[in-house]
From TrEMBL:
The lineage of its organism: Bacteria, Pseudomonadati, Pseudomonadota, Alphaproteobacteria, Caulobacterales. InterPro entries: NAD(P)-bd_dom_sf (IPR036291), Sc_DH/Rdtase_CS (IPR020904), SDR_fam (IPR002347). It comes from the Bacteria. Keywords: NADP, Oxidoreductase. This is D-xylose 1-dehydrogenase. Belongs to the short-chain dehydrogenases/reductases (SDR) family. One of its GO terms (molecular function) is D-xylose 1-dehydrogenase (NAD+) activity. Its EC number is 1.1.1.175. It is an enzyme of class 1 (oxidoreductase).
Length: 293
């Protein structure tokens, strides 16, 4: 998709961070914007800002873990603008901790937003894309979807799933004129480190307690490192521009920095080693020798 002028883009998690940046660069490129976020106050401020720039903007508050909510947002977008050309499934949350800290509620929340939020966006937008034989899906995963970190199981599992889903969709939807790109950013200045503020039930209080007093050793060191790196990470605007280039070139994976390449290469070497060992195994079961007395 080379020209965004007159195109219509729906972006989830659009009120801050990477979602805001992607919306901004698309707006500057002439796209009409459908902004979706769970935080109504922050979303209203972004809508006001973008309208002041003279852009065509629709804003909708929605919980992306609900298919009905995402479907309604997509239908409202088509009703307002007459079409939808891009869906950016960006909304995401972080919930870290060792195995002992896991709960059903935590897993449901992380997978509900990070994975099912993407699934719901794809389900809602794809029929429109197929009908017009064009469109582009931009899924925001993470470098954590290509290499895993200790004490990051919930987040990593959700982001690995998004990368795998995107690869499957890219092959499935290409014959219908639909592109699929997955953005895998590293540390970016955003509010994801405090995303538990939007978690349901007692998860916000539980995560705050865990972060302050509940973790020790490597887990605590990891959380402190993440907080530092997010504060000093890439500017979200730069990541938005990288995402735009990915859309223009129909790239499959968009990376934002080279820092994590050794981790990715280590995983690739492990796969290569497994393949090499596989070649040493017999392809057919060996019949056991029988002896007769």
């Amino acid at each position: 998709m080379q020209d965004f002028n007159g195109k219509v883009a729906l972006i989830t998690g659009a009120a801050s961070g990477i979602g805001y940046a992607i919306a901004e660069v698309l707006g500057e490129s002439g796209a009409a914007l459908s902004l979706v976020d769970i935080e109504a106050g922050a979303l209203a401020k972004v809508e006001h800002e973008f309208l002041a720039r003279g852009w065509s903007v629709l804003s909708q508050t929605a919980d992306v873990s609900s298919f009905d909510a995402v479907h309604a947002a997509v239908k409202s977008t088509v009703h307002r603008f007459g079409r939808i050309d891009i869906i950016c499934n960006n909304a995401g949350v972080g919930l870290e901790g060792p195995v002992e800290s896991w709960t059903d509620a935590g897993w449901s929340w992380v997978l509900g937003v990070n994975l099912m939020g993407v699934v719901n966006g794809v389900r809602a937008a794809t029929p429109f894309f197929k009908a017009q034989n064009s469109g582009h899906i931009l899924n925001v995963a993470s470098i954590g979807g290509l290499t895993a970190a200790a004490n990051h199981g919930q987040y990593g599992a959700s982001k690995f799933a998004v990368v795998g889903l995107s690869q499957s969709l890219r092959d499935e939807l290409a014959p219908h004129g639909v592109g699929v790109t997955v953005l895998c950013p590293g540390f970016v200045k955003s509010r994801i480190a405090t995303s538990a503020r939007n978690a349901p039930g007692d998860l916000p209080a539980r995560q705050a307690w865990l972060m302050e007093t509940g973790f020790t050793g490597p887990a605590k060191e990891l959380f402190q490192m993440i907080e530092r790196r997010v504060d000093t990470g890439l500017d979200a605007r730069a990541v938005g521009e990288m995402a735009l280039r990915g859309l223009r070139t129909n790239a499959f994976i968009v990376l934002t920095e080279r820092e994590f390449l050794p981790d990715i290469e280590r995983r690739q070497k492990a796969v290569a080693k497994a393949i090499a060992v596989l070649g040493q195994w017999p392809t057919q079961p060996q019949a056991q020798a029988q002896t007769h007395g």
